[in-house]
Amino acid sequence: MAGAETTVERLRQFLRELSPGARSLLIGELERAVLRGEEVTGADLVLQELRRIMREQREGALRIEDTARLLFKPLEPFLVDDQGDHKHPGRVARSSLEALWNWILRDLLPNDANDLAADVSEAMLAGDQSRTERLARIFQDRVAAAIEAKCSAGADDEKIRRRILQQIGTPRAGEELIALKCALKGRDVLASLSARLPLQIGNLANDQLDECKTLIESAAARDGELFLYALLTVMNRMTAPWQLIRLGVKAAGSDTAARVAETHYGVAVNIVLAELGRMVAELRADLRSGQGIAVGALLKTIHDSARGLRTELALPVDSTWGRTLAAQRTQISDLLRAEIESMPSRVQRLLRLRPSREIRANSVLDPNEVAEVEALVEFVGICRYFAGELAINEMTQRALTELRQYLDNGTRALLESLRHAGEGDRSFRQSQVDAAVRFCAKVFGREYAALLGKAAEVAGAAESRAARA
Fold it and tell me: pTM to 2 decimals?
């Protein structure tokens, strides 16, 4: 589809210009739709971009020069927000861009890289779009040719290769250097492939599977090194990236892992496994920070990927792929167990009845902690839908049962404490009741929470009358 890349860029710009409140509302509506199983065109893409925006705001966006952005533009489809040492075929960690840029200026093209960059920058400042693009292409071509020459020299001399890797200094410098070279060298071929793809591939099957396979092989026929990047270009348009393995099954004419591994498309399985590992790491970071965005939708994607790998491929448990998937499923289960089992105790710690002497005058619960625990309660509720595949069914049911019983009994005691609160502990006990209302909305529903809220108003009013008397 012509103009698809421009459409995505416009979407990203639109999402960045939204107010934080509007983003939060959009995230909530889209995540609920995804978890209900509704088909919302572009929901996965929008949630992915919103997660990136929110993460950048939390952690700080990577800052590189505008000239560097232009140079690396063909690499954008292959960038990933990932740990630098995570093995990810064909991908470049976004955090590695600064090191690659410095290496280009300092070591790859020490004599003229700065002049090329200055020319591009001058054209940008002058607002000359056509000249900017022409100079950027010249810069990209020079860098690609220089990298190819360096790689050829490194292939013949191990000392040269080691020196190049040390100069770049990133954990996966060799793989990232190849990815940069292929993205720059294959810029036009990959752009042509991208233009012929639909903006979104909802289900890679039947005629669409055949068409994508033909496009990938057409790009690879022009340059064999581009096969991997053609695969990734197709995957970027898929709402369910794990379906990339269907290309391997199609090529092999079998779902047997060994047969798929014998084809060029066997790398598709490595790509999907690496993407699953990246998403698990992202989920872990979000849960630990307590500030995750749309973690329910992310968990659904992880669940679907693990199930897709397990059901669409005949993976022997003792095969490399089988062991990798088993290890990742164990990581997911262990990660979720820690969060699920901690949830009831975190709620109880916030809502625990305290003697008045333990309460600082006019204090309240930490609103950030309340929000974190509320998000955790909601997340554990979402885990129910994926418990079977992720081996967390028993622990999820146990945690939710414990929470229901605690809230059912504990809220009465909280209301009673609010009725008899004094001037010093009133605000704290009110904040506990308010937190309980929020938690109950996630567990029992909004109607129950509304009734509890009204009961809290009555209790507060009774306490105020008693205080005046």
Answer: 0.83
